[in-house]
Amino acid sequence: xxxxxxRRLLYAIPILIGVNLLTFALFFxxxxxxDMARMQLGAKHVTPDAIERWKVEHGYDRPLLLNAKASGSxxxxxxxxxxxxxxxxxxxxxxxxxxxxxxxxxRTRMGPSLAIALPVFVIGLxxxxxxxxxxxxxxxxxxDLWGVVxxxxxxxxxxxxxxxxxxxFISKMWNLLPISGFAGGVDGLKFIMLPVLIGVVAGIGxxxxxxxxxxxxxxGKDYVRTxxxxxxxxxxxxxxxxxKNGMIPILTGAVVVLPLLFMGSLITESFFGIPGLGSYxxxxxxxxxxxxxxxxxxxxxxxxxxxxxxxxxxxxxxxxRVRLQ
Length: 325
Prior knowledge:
Blueprint: H1 2-30, H2 33-41, H3 48-58, H4 74-77, H5 80-85, H6 102-137, H7 142-156, H8 159-173, H9 189-219, H10 222-229, H11 234-245, H12 247-260, H13 266-272, H14 277-287, H15 290-318
Helix pairs in contact: 1-15, 2-3, 6-7, 6-9, 7-9, 8-9, 10-11, 12-15, 13-14, 14-15
């Protein structure tokens, strides 16, 4: 097991380097350091000297990938890519183009993102599995039929509609919850209840329908018929056998998503004014802050790889037949 984890972590290094290179190339195809300087300086007609000073202050005065004027290893290390990307492998993200420390921003904003994403994940998982098991229990009945219809309808509606409708009815018309904002501690519960509710409702359609498909594939297998032949009730068959054997595909989706909860939701945080990592990323994209965008892409890639490793490990826990070499 330990050898497998170490091997997967070593595989992650070239993947992260490739992600960094791709992000770097895509960003600089659109914008040059001069373009970023003009935008950050906030003036239409800035002087060349001001642009050069901004580039020197932010480390963009070096060549992009190869410094032909340097000698030896400095040809690779004295470049924008190395100076701004190598430190991220030890989670030193440096400063954004606005001068703020990116690492501190990530640590500060991680809490609000988790406050929204974690309840949505846990409650949504329980609701989706329960609803799916209910449809499977009443399969081939009108309850199952209308449950599937409801899932399709919910899947067909944009998540943006749930946000706008929730804010309009629950916050504006009925004044039950704040329309936006965030606060720490117990006072923050009233601010996260509406985003969590909307996040759970928006995910019921796709989640419950997917779990229903998983359980229906299991229900026709031989071990289910054997359990019924032994006299087990349908409820015990569902919860003791079908649910347990359906954990592999469930874990595939659940465990991979778990590390990405730290990244927050771009749309939800923006509409509800949540100072999380999602809104931080959106603000950086709008401001074309390359340092922040690069750091968030790197962090997202790293967390996704961690999620894949956790998924493989969880397979061996859910199914003893799976052994990681």
